[in-house]
Amino acid sequence: MALKMIHLAYLLIILCRNDGVEAIIGINWGRASAQRIVPSQVVDLLLQNGISAARIYSTQRDIIRAFRGSGIDLTVSSFNTLGLNSVDAAKNWVENKIVPYADTIRNIYVGNNAFSENKDAVFDSVMNIHNALSYFGLSEIKLNIPQPQIMLKENLTRPSDGEFRDEFKEVYDRLFRYLEENNTPLVMEMLPITFINEYNYDLSFGFADNKSTNVITDINGFVYTNVFEFLYDSFVWALKKAGAPNLKIVVGQVGWPTDGYPGANTYTAERFYKTLLPFVMSNKGTPMRPGAPIDIYVHCFQDENRMTYTTPYSRHWGIYRGNGEPKFKIDLSGQGRDIFPTRAKGIMRMPDRWCVFNGLNNNRLGAFEQFEKACNGSDCTGLATGGSCSHLDFVGKVSYAFNMYFQFRFQAENACEFKGMGQVVTTNPSNGSCLFRVDVVEGMQTQFAPSGCKLHEVPKCAILSFLLLTFTALL
Ligand SMILES: *[C@@H]1O[C@H](CO)[C@@H](O)[C@H](O)[C@H]1NC(C)=O
Ligand SMILES: *[C@@H]1O[C@H](CO)[C@@H](O)[C@H](O)[C@H]1NC(C)=O
Ligand SMILES: *[C@@H]1O[C@H](CO)[C@@H](O)[C@H](O)[C@H]1NC(C)=O
Ligand SMILES: *[C@@H]1O[C@H](CO)[C@@H](O)[C@H](O)[C@H]1NC(C)=O
Questions:
Q1: 414 lies in which domain range?
Q2: Residues 110 and 219 in one domain
Q3: Model confidence over 9-40: pLDDT tens digits?
């Protein structure tokens, strides 16, 4: 009996340790994909992997309901940043979207890099939501406006250069006071691979395994060998300069894509998490904040092949593919074990059928037209420079596009015509690292509308017309 009580006490300690003293690993889950796992299966997967916090990119009822009673801390998002600019609109919104799920929702995040839109109006909307939450007695639900790394001034050579952009000074003053008064952390969002490319660091700087060929020593003697600590401490410095040196920081988005970009693949993603997650769980903190627990949200749960993008990697941030298969080894508990995350159970795949280019005609221009049509109606980001299928020849690339289009339409017969150039095959046309996918059956997800993870991309990258780049040489 005594022994049982002790077990129970341990259990309670584990269950209650979410008190800000220990780091938390959460996960972001967007649904901008042609194939979507149903919410209850996702919640099961998160629980099996020991995930205690999740962020979704909507306030969709059926998704929130799937989290009810799960014990997972849920963050919902609103992108209607300017629509809640009146007291009544905000009250209505809170009453409809939040009040019924107040037992499940812990945080509300507003906007996607919201200050870049209309900073004052956004802040006023947030105040309206804040007042509406108080009105309904829901002040324990925390409101936040996530801040991406691009809000720091450019030309960052070391963390002590970190400073928020001048044009946002006033609104940041308001935000930081608000966060301090409400005991709420700043939410920062990181895109490590983008930072590395933008600043021409060696790829090794992306990983927290102390193997970087770039070693940066700051003015205070602190040494940085990875982009995570570098960017985190750049935010710490920026907060210090903005007069909010004690504000806690939650990393609301950090991850590594697996395709569509040089250096983005399953091996590098595995390496990225393999050292980052144990580092976070060690509560070691960063040079600027030693011993401070860092909560992070892994970005993200599954690939989103319908995400609008400016860089092709935007569709490849998932730990899971659209069909619930994990892409690489990752120990989401942060113990650094060499394990795959749990596989989704009960998901039905379509049969092993692929659509390929029959290659019979000599009409390259005609084939290219069909290729464009197929890509426009599906996802060809795997063909981008550095992508997993960028090595394919002309026939291979057209086949890849045809198959994507075919799978997006759940293998409908008429989705493999392409003016007589398409052909359904039953042998897997995958080529090395280039996978020709077969996805989940349509019934899995029709009733759940998409609402994708949002990324803050570097404007510099602009729209990459990589399709033309890859083909002009071949035509
Ligand atoms: C950043 O560096 C570039 C190139 O040296 C320079 O053109 C630009 O003005 C710098 N930007 C700022 C904000 O200092
Ligand atoms: C990182 O590597 C350097 C050089 O190899 C070494 O001096 C340092 O102790 C290492 N740091 C950690 C935390 O292992
Ligand atoms: C791409 O698809 C969209 C939506 O299906 C369509 O409106 C557009 O005309 C297409 N563009 C091209 C170049 O085919
Ligand atoms: C893989 O792709 C390359 C380039 O398209 C092609 O030459 C090769 O035959 C393909 N291999 C297989 C096994 O399909």
A1: 354-438
A2: yes
A3: 333 433 444 445 689 999 999 988 877 888 99
